[in-house]
Amino acid sequence: MTARAADRARYDRATAHLDAPLAIVDLEAFDANAADLVRRAGGKPIRVASKSVRCRTLLERVLAREGFAGIMSFTLAESLWLARSGFDDVLLAYPSADRAAYAELAGDPKLAAAVTVMVDDVAQLDLIDASRGGGREVVRVCLELDTSLKLLGGRVRVGARRSPLHSPAQVADVARAVVRRPGFEVVGIMAYEGHVAGVGDSLAGRPLRSRAIRLMQAAAKRELAQRRAEVVRAVRAVVPGLEFVNGGGTGSVQHTAAEDAVTEIAAGSGLYVPRLFDNYTSFSGRPAALFAMPVVRRPGVGVVTVLGGGYPASGAAGADRSPVPYLPEGLRYDPQEGAGEVQTPLLGSPADDLLIGDKVWFRHAKAGELCERFDALHLVEGDTVTATVPTYRGEGHTFL
């Protein structure tokens, strides 16, 4: 029996009393992935990206481990909810225009002490000030550096379109604007190199593209390491008491941690290890989060149909954004239908061994987005469900 077949047998036994659709997290795999992230970080603390987890119980579990400290959130409303829930170090990774949440933040000393907001434009400070509603708490601010690699005099750009702040001078100018403004305090710098951390460099059957990606990433890492160090020096000249410099992501943990200027690493997807993180030469993880759909039809030889399953991930549309049939091994989509909203035909010889009501296990393309589809995660240890815990959705929250 292969390792994957053994996992399927465990998951089927663990959930035999549960009807699909359902989602699980294999805690042994989850903990092993957490340990590997800590190993790769080389002693620097890891701030957990909540959008890649979206379950308070599992956020608490990983933050109880040595090597993890703090949360990187994705909306201001989520940040405040987490702070009210007892998480005392929450860095909002994206600027917000949530006026009501800013009023709540500026009016509550506990929230203001726990939550740091993201800024890359003085206009964002204007919006926060206009939203205070009488609240006078000091708002903690993190400045975001654009990490994109610019070539040919800026005519070619590699990387996500995030912050407009690219040079040390630009970041330092915004730092000075914050320092001059009452009611704000610069406490950190963030720089997320998504073109390194979030792009696999070993694509099956595409050796030339994989080689090109590795060359691009090597150049990007060299350029960013130098520029990030210069940015940190420029900002520290304005804010000597800077608390943290955050960088990285699951795919670049060890590379970013090697930079002296970086004080902490961000990661989250590496806990669940969705399918988009299969294509890296620098690390490998164990799939920890899966969902199961029930077989509801057997249309013919070599074909079964499962209920639903069409859960595409965000990003540029493509086949890599679909979940992948994972267990039993050897199933594939019908190219004429793909993953459907209410039914999904699956082809392959394993289909002939599946009965009505049997489970087919899938891996989502991205990590936390799976939790937007399910109210609960069944936590599996060995061949037993030892707990069932709510996702954000299960607690009544869909923050985006």
Description:
α5 (99-106) crosses α7 (122-131). The chain contains twelve helices and 19 strands. With 400 residues, it is α/β, with parallel strands linked by helices. The longest helix has 32 residues, at 207-238. A hairpin with a 2-residue loop joins β18 (376-381) and β19 (384-390). The protein has helices at residues 3-14, 27-41, 56-63, 76-84, 99-106, 109-114, 122-131, 168-179, 194-197, 207-238, 253-257, 269-272, and strands at 22-26, 46-49, 68-73, 90-92, 115-119, 139-144, 149-151, 156-158, 184-191, 244-247, 264-267, 289-300, 303-307, 324-327, 332-333, 343-347, 359-363, 376-381, 384-390.
What topology emerges from the helices and strands here?
Blueprint: H1 3-14, E1 22-26, H2 27-41, E2 46-49, H3 56-63, E3 68-73, H4 76-84, E4 90-92, H5 99-106, H6 109-114, E5 115-119, H7 122-131, E6 139-144, E7 149-151, E8 156-158, H8 168-179, E9 184-191, H9 194-197, H10 207-238, E10 244-247, H11 253-257, E11 264-267, H12 269-272, E12 289-300, E13 303-307, E14 324-327, E15 332-333, E16 343-347, E17 359-363, E18 376-381, E19 384-390
Parallel strand pairs: 1-18, 2-3, 2-11, 3-4, 4-5, 5-6, 6-9, 9-10, 10-11
Antiparallel strand pairs: 1-12, 7-8, 12-13, 12-17, 13-16, 14-17, 15-16, 18-19
Helix pairs in contact: 5-7, 8-10
Radius of gyration in whole Å, from Cα? 22 Å
Total count of strands: 19
Q: Give the low-pLDDT segments.
A: none
Q: Treating each run of at least 4 consecutive H or I residues as one helix, how many helices?
A: 12
